[in-house]
Amino acid sequence: MGTIGIVIAIALIVILAMKGYSIVFIAPVAAIVVIVTNGMDFFPSLIGTETSFMTGLSGFLISFFAVFLLGAILAQYIEKSGAAQSIAQKVLSITGTQKPFSVLVAILVISAILTFGGISLFVVLFVIIPLAKPLFKELNIAWNLVVIPIFIGIGTFTMTMMPGTPSIQNVVPMKYLGTTLMAAPLMGFVASLVAIIVGIVYMRYAMKKSIAAGDTFAPYEDAKEDSLALKEKTPSFFISILPILVLIIIIFAGSAMKVDNIVLIGLAAGIIVAAILFHPFIPSHKTALSLGANGSITPIFFTAATVAFGVVITMAPGFKLISDFILGIPGNPLISLTIASASLGAMTGSSSGGLGIAMEAFAQTYLDMGVNPDAMHRISAIASSVLTGLPHAGAILSLFALAGLNHKNSFKYAFIAMTVPIFFALIVALIMGILFY
């Protein structure tokens, strides 16, 4: 009955998330289902001060609030100053805007640069949509193709693979494994290269197929217009990219020297540089700081609520059957860890949430088995995202709402653009992990 209760709770999360309910509401409801069906002590398991839903929630907030806060503030500076727009326009000037494929490549590159610089994917979407739409219209490209380069840029190699990326998916395993953002660098670089190649091949294939089918921009003429106007005065490209470069250099150097909390140091330095350089372009520092601080609350609570649900699952007697099944998968332990991370990411519709649950449930067990922590870090991060391109995923819902698209005309592109490159990259990373780690 306990195991069935866990399955019911996970199904509840998927169904309610697809119906638009917030995970902050869904997670405690699902936790209650697990607690009741497993015969656990109700209040101690839900709001107890030792191991409970609330301690899982608060523990995640304590560990990662500073990362979310500083990342959101830096994102606000880069958005409000027009720096993101300046970077995007520079990339477009290099790739050109006369050929459809060049425009798609430019959007991919812009998305990747901004997310690797620690910028929230939501900020990236707000920057790219108003830049891309007139180009798609001018070249008469079907607007739904825009989801391919965006999701390859924000949802594949810069999210989980590239060593040094300050994404939350790359930060979470550090708490459980004692690793750094640069964990398994060779594996990460090779996986990134595979994801990029596969993604670009698919992007070209989808574009050619769309053009051959006679698809044009016309059906999307009435698509939702973006409310953000492009800024007239923006910092130069060099000034715009400098805070991101500072962040990346500090993370790479600090990780190599094993400096504690290097992601916080890098983000803080990036903010200071941005505040100084972007001063002439920022209407109000108070606004940037306040919006960044407020904007960090929702995403961290979304992820923390999912992790807290995972804590309840790991406490439940019924979880032992699931745990024994995963740990009993034959072959190298990295294979079973891959399956666990991928499954939990798919169930929650969140790679960071699924990864948090996987680490909470299995990290110490695998470490005790002698599995290399760097390999665990990189492979579990990649695996957590391989099946998150599902209909209830927050990134997909956000992009569709902002771009005026829907599941019927665009979901297949979103799903394939994320799933296929990550899948091939994961296979390569897993082979490297088994052979070399």
Overview of this structure, please?
The chain is mainly α and 437 residues long. It has one domain (2-436). Helices cover 75% and strands 0% of the residues. The protein has 21 helices and no strands. The chain is globular, with a radius of gyration of 21 Å.
Itemize the secondary structure elements and their pairings:
Layout lengths: L1 H17 L4 H15 L4 H6 L5 H28 L2 H13 L4 H17 L4 H19 L7 H9 L1 H5 L6 H10 L7 H28 L24 H20 L5 H16 L7 H11 L1 H19 L3 H9 L5 H16 L2 H18 L4 H13 L8 H10 L3 H30 L1
| Straight-line distance between termini | 39 Å
**What's the story with the biggest beta sheet?**
none
How many domains, as an integer? Answer: 1
Q: What is the SS-derived class?
A: mainly alpha
Q: What fraction, in percent, of the residue positions are helical?
A: over 70%
C-alpha Rg, in Å?
21 Å
Question: Short description, anyone?
Answer:
The protein is 75% helix and 0% strand. With 437 residues, it is an all-alpha fold.
Features:
0% strand; mainly alpha
